[in-house]
Amino acid sequence: MNKTVIIGSNHAGIAAANTLLDQYPNQEVVMIEKNSNLSYLGCGTALWVGRQIDSYEGLFYTNKEDFEAKGAKIYTETTVEQIDFQQKNIQCNSNTGERFFESYDTLILATGSKPIAPNIPGADLENIHFLKRFQDGQTVDKRMSEPNIKTVAVIGAGYIGVEIAEAAKRRGKHVLLFDGADRSLPSYYDREFTDQMDKNLSENGIELHFGELAKEYRGTKAVEAFVTNKGTYNVDLVINAIGFLPNNELGKEHLELFHNGAYVVDEYQQTSDPSVYAVGDCATIYSNALKKISYIALATNAVRTGLVAGHNIGGAKLASSGVQGSNGISIFGLNMVSTGLSVEAASKNKLDVLYTDYEDLQKPGFMADNAQVKIRIVYEKSSRRIIGAQMCSRAEISMGIHLFSLAIEQNVTIDELKLLDIFFLPHFNQPYNYITMAALTAE
Protein backbone atom coordinates (compact mmCIF):
# COMPACT_ATOMS: atom_id res chain seq x y z
CA MET A 1 0.00 0.00 0.00
CA ASN A 2 1.48 3.33 -1.12
CA LYS A 3 0.54 6.39 0.91
CA THR A 4 0.20 9.56 -1.13
CA VAL A 5 -0.30 12.91 0.56
CA ILE A 6 -1.69 15.71 -1.62
CA ILE A 7 -1.23 19.28 -0.39
CA GLY A 8 -3.85 21.46 -2.07
CA SER A 9 -7.24 20.39 -3.34
CA ASN A 10 -8.23 22.56 -6.24
CA HIS A 11 -8.20 21.44 -9.89
CA ALA A 12 -4.76 19.77 -10.00
CA GLY A 13 -4.95 18.13 -6.58
CA ILE A 14 -8.47 16.89 -7.19
CA ALA A 15 -7.55 15.39 -10.58
CA ALA A 16 -4.64 13.53 -8.98
CA ALA A 17 -6.77 12.31 -6.06
CA ASN A 18 -9.59 11.09 -8.30
CA THR A 19 -7.14 9.25 -10.55
CA LEU A 20 -5.53 7.43 -7.62
CA LEU A 21 -8.78 6.64 -5.83
CA ASP A 22 -10.77 5.57 -8.89
CA GLN A 23 -8.15 3.53 -10.73
CA TYR A 24 -5.50 2.29 -8.29
CA PRO A 25 -6.82 0.26 -5.32
CA ASN A 26 -3.39 -0.04 -3.65
CA GLN A 27 -3.32 3.68 -2.82
CA GLU A 28 -3.90 5.38 0.51
CA VAL A 29 -4.73 9.03 -0.19
CA VAL A 30 -4.53 11.91 2.27
CA MET A 31 -5.59 15.41 1.19
CA ILE A 32 -4.61 18.56 3.09
CA GLU A 33 -6.39 21.82 2.26
CA LYS A 34 -5.96 25.16 4.04
CA ASN A 35 -9.32 26.46 2.80
CA SER A 36 -12.74 25.44 4.13
CA ASN A 37 -13.88 24.28 0.69
CA LEU A 38 -12.45 22.59 -2.37
CA SER A 39 -12.97 22.51 -6.15
CA TYR A 40 -14.00 26.15 -6.58
CA LEU A 41 -14.14 27.22 -10.23
CA GLY A 42 -12.59 30.66 -9.87
CA CYS A 43 -13.09 31.35 -13.57
CA GLY A 44 -16.81 31.67 -12.78
CA THR A 45 -16.41 34.38 -10.12
CA ALA A 46 -17.00 37.23 -12.57
CA LEU A 47 -20.12 35.50 -13.94
CA TRP A 48 -21.53 35.27 -10.43
CA VAL A 49 -20.50 38.78 -9.33
CA GLY A 50 -21.85 40.16 -12.62
CA ARG A 51 -25.15 38.30 -12.12
CA GLN A 52 -24.79 36.40 -15.39
CA ILE A 53 -25.49 33.24 -13.39
CA ASP A 54 -28.00 32.93 -10.57
CA SER A 55 -25.71 31.76 -7.76
CA TYR A 56 -22.28 30.42 -6.90
CA GLU A 57 -23.34 26.90 -5.86
CA GLY A 58 -22.69 25.44 -9.31
CA LEU A 59 -19.08 26.68 -9.20
CA PHE A 60 -18.22 23.83 -6.82
CA TYR A 61 -17.99 20.50 -8.64
CA THR A 62 -17.11 18.22 -5.75
CA ASN A 63 -16.86 18.22 -1.96
CA LYS A 64 -15.10 16.67 0.99
CA GLU A 65 -17.75 13.99 1.46
CA ASP A 66 -17.25 12.67 -2.10
CA PHE A 67 -13.60 11.90 -1.40
CA GLU A 68 -14.25 10.46 2.04
CA ALA A 69 -16.75 8.09 0.43
CA LYS A 70 -13.92 6.85 -1.80
CA GLY A 71 -11.73 6.18 1.23
CA ALA A 72 -9.58 9.30 1.30
CA LYS A 73 -8.66 11.10 4.49
CA ILE A 74 -9.23 14.84 4.14
CA TYR A 75 -8.12 17.71 6.33
CA THR A 76 -9.67 21.10 5.55
CA GLU A 77 -8.83 24.43 7.18
CA THR A 78 -5.42 22.91 7.86
CA THR A 79 -2.09 24.61 7.21
CA VAL A 80 1.11 22.76 6.37
CA GLU A 81 3.82 24.41 8.45
CA GLN A 82 6.83 22.41 7.35
CA ILE A 83 7.89 19.37 5.33
CA ASP A 84 10.79 17.16 6.33
CA PHE A 85 11.74 15.78 2.92
CA GLN A 86 14.40 13.46 4.33
CA GLN A 87 12.10 11.83 6.87
CA LYS A 88 9.04 12.20 4.59
CA ASN A 89 7.04 13.83 7.33
CA ILE A 90 4.63 16.79 7.20
CA GLN A 91 3.87 19.10 10.12
CA CYS A 92 0.27 20.40 10.08
CA ASN A 93 -1.77 22.84 12.12
CA SER A 94 -5.57 22.77 12.08
CA ASN A 95 -7.76 25.84 12.50
CA THR A 96 -8.53 24.62 16.03
CA GLY A 97 -4.86 24.91 16.94
CA GLU A 98 -4.21 21.17 16.90
CA ARG A 99 -0.72 20.23 15.71
CA PHE A 100 -0.17 16.85 14.06
CA PHE A 101 2.09 15.05 11.59
CA GLU A 102 1.42 13.03 8.44
CA SER A 103 4.02 10.76 6.87
CA TYR A 104 4.10 9.92 3.17
CA ASP A 105 5.59 7.55 0.65
CA THR A 106 4.79 9.95 -2.19
CA LEU A 107 3.99 13.64 -1.93
CA ILE A 108 2.05 15.76 -4.43
CA LEU A 109 2.45 19.52 -4.16
CA ALA A 110 -0.68 21.14 -5.60
CA THR A 111 -0.32 24.47 -3.82
CA GLY A 112 -1.28 26.58 -6.83
CA SER A 113 -0.39 30.23 -7.18
CA LYS A 114 -0.66 33.40 -5.13
CA PRO A 115 -1.76 36.85 -6.33
CA ILE A 116 0.81 39.55 -6.94
CA ALA A 117 0.30 42.42 -4.52
CA PRO A 118 1.55 45.92 -5.37
CA ASN A 119 4.06 46.96 -2.71
CA ILE A 120 2.87 50.55 -2.47
CA PRO A 121 1.77 52.89 0.35
CA GLY A 122 -1.78 52.40 1.58
CA ALA A 123 -1.99 48.70 0.75
CA ASP A 124 -3.47 48.00 4.21
CA LEU A 125 -6.54 50.20 3.66
CA GLU A 126 -9.98 48.61 3.60
CA ASN A 127 -11.83 47.90 0.34
CA ILE A 128 -8.71 46.70 -1.48
CA HIS A 129 -9.25 43.12 -2.59
CA PHE A 130 -7.89 40.24 -4.65
CA LEU A 131 -9.82 37.57 -6.55
CA LYS A 132 -8.42 34.10 -5.88
CA ARG A 133 -10.47 32.14 -3.37
CA PHE A 134 -14.23 31.68 -3.05
CA GLN A 135 -14.15 33.92 0.02
CA ASP A 136 -12.56 36.68 -2.08
CA GLY A 137 -15.46 36.45 -4.50
CA GLN A 138 -17.94 36.59 -1.62
CA THR A 139 -16.34 39.75 -0.25
CA VAL A 140 -16.22 41.52 -3.61
CA ASP A 141 -19.81 40.51 -4.34
CA LYS A 142 -20.92 41.93 -0.99
CA ARG A 143 -19.10 45.23 -1.67
CA MET A 144 -20.78 45.50 -5.06
CA SER A 145 -24.14 45.45 -3.28
CA GLU A 146 -23.28 48.42 -1.10
CA PRO A 147 -24.78 51.72 -2.38
CA ASN A 148 -21.78 53.75 -1.26
CA ILE A 149 -19.52 51.76 -3.64
CA LYS A 150 -19.94 53.76 -6.82
CA THR A 151 -16.50 53.75 -8.48
CA VAL A 152 -14.43 50.59 -8.84
CA ALA A 153 -10.77 50.50 -9.90
CA VAL A 154 -9.54 47.25 -11.41
CA ILE A 155 -5.75 46.95 -11.52
CA GLY A 156 -4.59 44.59 -14.24
CA ALA A 157 -6.14 44.07 -17.67
CA GLY A 158 -5.48 40.37 -18.07
CA TYR A 159 -8.28 37.83 -18.17
CA ILE A 160 -9.38 38.19 -14.54
CA GLY A 161 -9.18 41.99 -14.60
CA VAL A 162 -11.17 42.35 -17.81
CA GLU A 163 -13.79 39.86 -16.62
CA ILE A 164 -14.30 41.52 -13.22
CA ALA A 165 -14.40 44.95 -14.89
CA GLU A 166 -17.32 43.71 -16.99
CA ALA A 167 -18.96 42.23 -13.88
CA ALA A 168 -18.67 45.52 -11.96
CA LYS A 169 -20.14 47.42 -14.89
CA ARG A 170 -23.05 44.99 -15.05
CA ARG A 171 -23.64 45.80 -11.36
CA GLY A 172 -24.03 49.48 -12.27
CA LYS A 173 -20.62 50.70 -11.12
CA HIS A 174 -18.35 53.29 -12.70
CA VAL A 175 -15.35 51.16 -13.66
CA LEU A 176 -11.75 52.24 -14.24
CA LEU A 177 -9.45 49.58 -15.71
CA PHE A 178 -5.69 50.08 -15.22
CA ASP A 179 -2.66 48.32 -16.64
CA GLY A 180 1.01 49.12 -17.03
CA ALA A 181 0.87 47.78 -20.59
CA ASP A 182 -0.64 49.89 -23.35
CA ARG A 183 -3.50 47.46 -24.06
CA SER A 184 -5.56 44.67 -22.54
CA LEU A 185 -4.78 40.95 -22.76
CA PRO A 186 -1.23 41.32 -24.10
CA SER A 187 -0.12 37.87 -22.94
CA TYR A 188 -2.31 35.96 -25.38
CA TYR A 189 -3.18 38.26 -28.30
CA ASP A 190 -1.51 40.60 -30.74
CA ARG A 191 -2.54 44.23 -30.98
CA GLU A 192 -4.84 43.69 -33.97
CA PHE A 193 -7.03 41.59 -31.68
CA THR A 194 -6.70 43.47 -28.40
CA ASP A 195 -7.64 46.71 -30.20
CA GLN A 196 -11.04 45.14 -30.79
CA MET A 197 -11.37 44.17 -27.15
CA ASP A 198 -10.30 47.63 -25.97
CA LYS A 199 -12.88 49.22 -28.28
CA ASN A 200 -15.49 46.79 -26.95
CA LEU A 201 -14.66 47.65 -23.34
CA SER A 202 -14.74 51.39 -24.00
CA GLU A 203 -18.02 51.23 -25.92
CA ASN A 204 -19.58 49.42 -22.96
CA GLY A 205 -18.58 52.11 -20.50
CA ILE A 206 -15.29 50.85 -19.08
CA GLU A 207 -12.85 53.75 -18.57
CA LEU A 208 -9.46 52.56 -19.83
CA HIS A 209 -6.18 53.69 -18.23
CA PHE A 210 -3.36 51.86 -19.98
CA GLY A 211 0.33 52.61 -19.59
CA GLU A 212 -0.26 53.59 -15.94
CA LEU A 213 1.68 52.18 -13.00
CA ALA A 214 0.33 51.95 -9.44
CA LYS A 215 2.03 54.35 -7.02
CA GLU A 216 -0.18 54.73 -3.95
CA TYR A 217 -3.54 54.11 -2.32
CA ARG A 218 -4.95 56.97 -0.30
CA GLY A 219 -7.63 57.10 2.35
CA THR A 220 -8.23 57.29 6.10
CA LYS A 221 -9.74 53.90 6.94
CA ALA A 222 -10.92 52.65 3.55
CA VAL A 223 -9.41 53.44 0.17
CA GLU A 224 -10.58 56.77 -1.25
CA ALA A 225 -8.13 57.39 -4.08
CA PHE A 226 -5.78 55.47 -6.34
CA VAL A 227 -2.60 57.19 -7.52
CA THR A 228 -0.68 56.20 -10.66
CA ASN A 229 2.26 57.75 -12.51
CA LYS A 230 -0.27 59.70 -14.57
CA GLY A 231 -2.94 60.86 -12.14
CA THR A 232 -5.02 60.52 -8.99
CA TYR A 233 -8.47 58.90 -9.18
CA ASN A 234 -11.24 58.90 -6.59
CA VAL A 235 -12.37 55.31 -6.03
CA ASP A 236 -14.48 53.40 -3.51
CA LEU A 237 -13.24 49.87 -4.20
CA VAL A 238 -10.02 48.44 -5.66
CA ILE A 239 -9.71 44.95 -7.14
CA ASN A 240 -6.16 43.77 -7.76
CA ALA A 241 -5.79 41.45 -10.75
CA ILE A 242 -2.15 42.03 -11.65
CA GLY A 243 -1.31 38.35 -11.97
CA PHE A 244 -0.04 35.36 -10.04
CA LEU A 245 3.22 33.74 -8.98
CA PRO A 246 3.77 30.04 -8.15
CA ASN A 247 3.18 29.23 -4.48
CA ASN A 248 6.49 27.52 -3.71
CA GLU A 249 6.80 28.25 0.02
CA LEU A 250 6.87 24.61 1.12
CA GLY A 251 9.54 23.31 -1.25
CA LYS A 252 11.62 26.24 -2.48
CA GLU A 253 14.60 25.36 -0.28
CA HIS A 254 14.63 21.71 -1.34
CA LEU A 255 13.42 21.41 -4.94
CA GLU A 256 14.78 22.71 -8.23
CA LEU A 257 13.01 25.92 -9.28
CA PHE A 258 12.22 27.57 -12.62
CA HIS A 259 13.24 31.20 -13.13
CA ASN A 260 9.87 32.41 -11.80
CA GLY A 261 9.95 30.13 -8.76
CA ALA A 262 7.83 27.27 -10.10
CA TYR A 263 8.88 23.73 -9.27
CA VAL A 264 10.70 22.18 -12.22
CA VAL A 265 9.06 18.87 -13.19
CA ASP A 266 9.69 16.28 -15.87
CA GLU A 267 7.13 14.82 -18.28
CA TYR A 268 5.81 12.62 -15.44
CA GLN A 269 5.29 15.61 -13.08
CA GLN A 270 8.20 14.43 -10.94
CA THR A 271 10.34 17.08 -9.24
CA SER A 272 14.08 16.94 -8.49
CA ASP A 273 13.09 14.82 -5.46
CA PRO A 274 11.88 11.42 -6.82
CA SER A 275 9.31 11.10 -4.00
CA VAL A 276 7.75 14.49 -4.74
CA TYR A 277 5.47 15.43 -7.63
CA ALA A 278 4.21 18.93 -8.39
CA VAL A 279 1.06 19.76 -10.36
CA GLY A 280 -0.92 22.79 -11.44
CA ASP A 281 0.08 26.42 -11.02
CA CYS A 282 3.02 25.69 -8.72
CA ALA A 283 4.85 23.68 -11.39
CA THR A 284 6.39 24.10 -14.83
CA ILE A 285 4.84 22.62 -17.94
CA TYR A 286 6.17 21.73 -21.39
CA SER A 287 5.15 24.09 -24.19
CA ASN A 288 4.81 22.41 -27.57
CA ALA A 289 4.95 25.79 -29.26
CA LEU A 290 8.27 26.72 -27.63
CA LYS A 291 9.60 23.14 -27.54
CA LYS A 292 10.80 23.63 -23.97
CA ILE A 293 9.50 23.88 -20.42
CA SER A 294 7.54 26.99 -19.58
CA TYR A 295 5.02 28.32 -17.07
CA ILE A 296 1.38 28.47 -18.19
CA ALA A 297 -1.09 28.80 -15.33
CA LEU A 298 -4.47 27.60 -16.61
CA ALA A 299 -7.11 25.41 -14.96
CA THR A 300 -7.12 23.00 -17.90
CA ASN A 301 -3.37 22.53 -17.58
CA ALA A 302 -3.79 21.93 -13.85
CA VAL A 303 -6.24 19.10 -14.49
CA ARG A 304 -3.95 17.47 -17.07
CA THR A 305 -0.94 17.59 -14.77
CA GLY A 306 -2.95 16.10 -11.92
CA LEU A 307 -4.03 13.20 -14.13
CA VAL A 308 -0.46 12.55 -15.27
CA ALA A 309 0.89 12.56 -11.70
CA GLY A 310 -1.89 10.29 -10.46
CA HIS A 311 -1.28 7.64 -13.12
CA ASN A 312 2.49 7.64 -12.62
CA ILE A 313 2.21 7.33 -8.85
CA GLY A 314 -0.36 4.58 -9.34
CA GLY A 315 2.10 2.60 -11.44
CA ALA A 316 1.18 3.37 -15.05
CA LYS A 317 4.00 5.11 -16.91
CA LEU A 318 2.29 8.09 -18.54
CA ALA A 319 4.20 10.99 -20.05
CA SER A 320 2.58 14.36 -20.57
CA SER A 321 2.11 15.33 -24.22
CA GLY A 322 2.75 18.98 -23.40
CA VAL A 323 0.33 21.86 -23.79
CA GLN A 324 -0.37 24.80 -26.04
CA GLY A 325 -1.91 27.14 -23.49
CA SER A 326 -5.31 27.22 -25.21
CA ASN A 327 -7.60 29.84 -23.70
CA GLY A 328 -10.56 32.11 -24.37
CA ILE A 329 -12.61 35.01 -23.09
CA SER A 330 -16.08 36.42 -23.75
CA ILE A 331 -16.77 40.05 -22.77
CA PHE A 332 -19.96 41.94 -23.59
CA GLY A 333 -20.61 39.44 -26.39
CA LEU A 334 -17.16 39.62 -27.98
CA ASN A 335 -15.47 36.21 -28.09
CA MET A 336 -11.70 35.82 -28.33
CA VAL A 337 -9.76 32.54 -28.28
CA SER A 338 -6.10 31.71 -28.74
CA THR A 339 -3.57 28.92 -28.48
CA GLY A 340 0.19 28.73 -28.65
CA LEU A 341 2.15 31.93 -29.24
CA SER A 342 1.17 35.32 -30.58
CA VAL A 343 3.58 37.11 -32.93
CA GLU A 344 4.68 39.31 -30.02
CA ALA A 345 5.22 36.34 -27.71
CA ALA A 346 7.18 34.51 -30.40
CA SER A 347 9.43 37.53 -30.86
CA LYS A 348 10.07 37.74 -27.10
CA ASN A 349 11.12 34.10 -27.20
CA LYS A 350 13.42 34.78 -30.17
CA LEU A 351 11.43 32.68 -32.64
CA ASP A 352 11.50 33.85 -36.27
CA VAL A 353 7.88 33.65 -37.39
CA LEU A 354 5.48 34.67 -40.12
CA TYR A 355 1.74 35.07 -39.80
CA THR A 356 -1.33 35.10 -41.98
CA ASP A 357 -4.54 37.03 -41.27
CA TYR A 358 -7.98 36.61 -42.76
CA GLU A 359 -11.35 38.18 -42.00
CA ASP A 360 -14.75 37.22 -43.37
CA LEU A 361 -18.32 36.47 -42.37
CA GLN A 362 -18.78 33.27 -40.41
CA LYS A 363 -21.56 32.12 -42.80
CA PRO A 364 -22.63 33.05 -46.34
CA GLY A 365 -23.99 36.59 -46.68
CA PHE A 366 -27.55 35.40 -47.24
CA MET A 367 -27.71 33.95 -43.70
CA ALA A 368 -29.38 36.34 -41.25
CA ASP A 369 -27.68 35.04 -38.10
CA ASN A 370 -24.12 35.97 -38.96
CA ALA A 371 -21.00 37.73 -37.72
CA GLN A 372 -17.49 38.72 -38.81
CA VAL A 373 -14.63 36.39 -37.87
CA LYS A 374 -11.00 37.46 -37.66
CA ILE A 375 -8.26 34.84 -37.59
CA ARG A 376 -4.47 34.91 -37.36
CA ILE A 377 -2.25 31.86 -37.78
CA VAL A 378 1.36 32.16 -36.58
CA TYR A 379 3.98 29.81 -38.02
CA GLU A 380 7.72 29.34 -37.78
CA LYS A 381 9.56 30.75 -40.79
CA SER A 382 12.11 27.95 -41.18
CA SER A 383 10.06 24.83 -40.45
CA ARG A 384 6.68 26.41 -41.33
CA ARG A 385 5.15 24.55 -38.37
CA ILE A 386 2.12 26.24 -36.82
CA ILE A 387 2.97 27.65 -33.38
CA GLY A 388 -0.09 29.80 -32.61
CA ALA A 389 -3.53 31.00 -33.60
CA GLN A 390 -5.96 33.72 -32.53
CA MET A 391 -9.64 34.12 -33.39
CA CYS A 392 -12.14 36.85 -32.64
CA SER A 393 -15.88 37.13 -33.38
CA ARG A 394 -19.29 37.79 -31.92
CA ALA A 395 -20.20 34.35 -33.23
CA GLU A 396 -19.42 31.16 -31.31
CA ILE A 397 -16.07 30.18 -32.84
CA SER A 398 -14.32 28.65 -29.82
CA MET A 399 -14.19 25.06 -31.07
CA GLY A 400 -12.00 26.13 -33.99
CA ILE A 401 -9.09 26.87 -31.68
CA HIS A 402 -8.91 23.20 -30.66
CA LEU A 403 -7.92 22.33 -34.24
CA PHE A 404 -4.94 24.65 -33.91
CA SER A 405 -4.06 23.25 -30.50
CA LEU A 406 -3.79 19.78 -32.03
CA ALA A 407 -1.89 21.21 -35.01
CA ILE A 408 0.76 22.69 -32.70
CA GLU A 409 1.06 19.46 -30.70
CA GLN A 410 1.45 17.40 -33.90
CA ASN A 411 3.85 19.83 -35.66
CA VAL A 412 1.43 20.48 -38.53
CA THR A 413 2.75 22.99 -41.06
CA ILE A 414 0.82 25.90 -42.53
CA ASP A 415 1.04 24.18 -45.91
CA GLU A 416 -0.57 20.97 -44.63
CA LEU A 417 -3.51 23.04 -43.43
CA LYS A 418 -4.28 24.47 -46.88
CA LEU A 419 -6.26 21.49 -48.19
CA LEU A 420 -7.65 20.25 -44.88
CA ASP A 421 -11.04 18.56 -45.27
CA ILE A 422 -13.37 21.22 -43.79
CA PHE A 423 -17.03 20.70 -44.58
CA PHE A 424 -19.42 23.42 -45.76
CA LEU A 425 -23.03 24.03 -44.78
CA PRO A 426 -24.61 27.52 -44.71
CA HIS A 427 -25.82 26.97 -41.15
CA PHE A 428 -22.19 26.76 -39.98
CA ASN A 429 -19.66 28.32 -42.33
CA GLN A 430 -18.62 29.59 -45.76
CA PRO A 431 -17.75 27.45 -48.81
CA TYR A 432 -14.26 28.92 -48.59
CA ASN A 433 -13.76 28.57 -44.86
CA TYR A 434 -11.77 31.31 -43.13
CA ILE A 435 -9.33 28.72 -41.79
CA THR A 436 -8.69 27.44 -45.31
CA MET A 437 -8.42 30.94 -46.72
CA ALA A 438 -5.97 32.06 -44.04
CA ALA A 439 -3.75 29.07 -44.83
CA LEU A 440 -4.03 29.57 -48.60
CA THR A 441 -3.00 33.21 -48.37
CA ALA A 442 0.02 32.49 -46.15
CA GLU A 443 3.36 33.69 -47.44
From TrEMBL:
Residues 3-306 form the FAD/NAD(P)-binding domain. Residues 333-429 form the Pyridine nucleotide-disulphide oxidoreductase dimerisation domain. Keywords: FAD, Flavoprotein, NAD, Oxidation, Oxidoreductase, Redox-active center. Its EC number is 1.6.3.4. It catalyses: 2 NADH + O2 + 2 H(+) = 2 NAD(+) + 2 H2O. Its cofactor is FAD. InterPro entries: FAD-bd_OxRdtase, FAD/NAD-bd_sf, FAD/NAD-binding_dom, FAD/NAD-linked_Rdtase_dimer_sf, NOXase, Pyr_nucl-diS_OxRdtase_dimer. It is an enzyme of class 1 (oxidoreductase). Belongs to the class-III pyridine nucleotide-disulfide oxidoreductase family. NCBIfam families: NOXase_Strep (NF046103). This is NADH oxidase. It comes from Enterococcus wangshanyuanii.
